Amino acid sequence: MKDTIKNKVAENLAAAVPNIADQIAAQLAEEEHRKRVEAGRKVYDQIVTLERQINKLDRPDNVTYNADGSKAGESYSKGRIDELQKLRKTLGEKGAAIRAAAPGEGENAQPANFDKLFAEAVKPVNVKPDPTPQPAAE
Prior knowledge:
By secondary structure, this protein is mainly alpha-helical. Helix content is 64%, strand content 7%. The protein has one domain.
């Protein structure tokens, strides 16, 4: 009886080995998928933050008007121009990382590259306050 139970346990373990390997592979694939999704979501959230900041800053510091009320001209401060350029560059890098992670289609299909996505996900997005000078108090 003891040998029979031992044999049955050994047989069950031998039969379970491929199943265990499949479960380990599935679990590892799921963990990698989760990491990729989290990195993609983080970069997406950073893109949204950058777009909001660009929209907030993309207006002139000074606007001049003609006597009839039409706009005569507008000017941007050097600080505002520099900040917008920096934000747009960062936005382009984040967008490129998202596009690189998406597998290509068609004749020139490119395989998905998640290295760029992981690298961009850990880079912080430093959003500075509006560089517009505050009007002097009267």
